[in-house]
Specification:
about 120 residues; 1 helix; about 10% helix; mainly beta
C-alpha cells in the first residue's frame, strides 16, 4: 500500500530490509569461536582499541595474543571500562601513557579487533 508521504510503497521496503541484512559481513568471533583457517585474511593476532568516553577521541591501542581475545570482536564486544591506573598504549608509531588514578578515573570504550595481514 502506498503512503502519501513516502515515494515508494511499503511492500518494496521488505525486500530492501532483506538485502541490507544480507549485505552485512558475518561476524568473526574471538576466542574459542574464532577459526583462523576460515578467515579470508592472514590473522596476525588481536588488538584492543581504547576511545575516551567523554571526548570520543582515540586514546590508542595495545596488542593482544590470539589466546587473550576475551570477547567478541568489533562492535558486539564493546565494553565501557573505568581506568584507575595509567595504561601504556600505541597511537600511530609512538607510545602514549593514558593518565588515570583512583581519584581521577577515566571512562573508556574498549573494542577488540583482528590484526589482519594480506588476503590468503
Amino acid at each position: 500500500m502506498k503512503d502519501k508521504h513516502l515515494p515508494f510503497d511499503e511492500d518494496s521496503l521488505g525486500d530492501m530490509k532483506t538485502n541490507l541484512q544480507a549485505s552485512f559481513p558475518t561476524m568473526i568471533k574471538a576466542n574459542q569461536y574464532f577459526d583462523p583457517a576460515t578467515c579470508p585474511f592472514e590473522v596476525l593476532g588481536f588488538f584492543e582499541d581504547f576511545v575516551d568516553l567523554d571526548t570520543f577521541k582515540s586514546l590508542g591501542s595495545r596488542a593482544l595474543n590470539v589466546d587473550q581475545a576475551p570477547r567478541l570482536t568489533g562492535s558486539p564486544g564493546i565494553l565501557t571500562l573505568v581506568l584507575t591506573e595509567p595504561v601504556t598504549l600505541v597511537k600511530g608509531f609512538r607510545q602514549v601513557t593514558v593518565k588515570a588514578s583512583p581519584r581521577k578515573p577515566r571512562r573508556v570504550l574498549s573494542t577488540i579487533q583482528i590484526l589482519c595481514g594480506k588476503t590468503k
